[in-house]
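All the exercises in this workshop are built on plain-text protein records. A learned vocabulary of local backbone shapes supplies the integers on the structure line. Once this layout is familiar, the rest of the handout is easier to follow. An example says more than a description, so a record of this kind follows:
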Amino acid sequence: NVIEPKIFGEIFNLSPVVVLLNISFWSLLWNLPGAILSVPLLFCSRIICLHLNHPYAHAMVLLMEGNIFEISIEEESSIRNQRKTWERFDSYFGNREHVEGQFYDKQTH
């Protein structure tokens, strides 16, 4: 139980802790067949998450690899762009008032 997570973790680029937790979960659920199928299921889910274009899928891959706090350059620039968009939105609508479905400037209304 100690050697297998280390070996599979290095081969498949998975965290040994995640592999060990995965083996424990599936062996509790399905006993011996679960323990045997746990690493292939984890690896298949990693491959599926790698091909999905969703932030949660990317977070799951980082979790499986043991790089929870790693942020890529693309994600950092995406976060900056979202922040700039919200700042522009707030600067436009921040000094406006919403009354009965219409936006009015606070100074003129």
Observations:
- The mean pLDDT is 76.
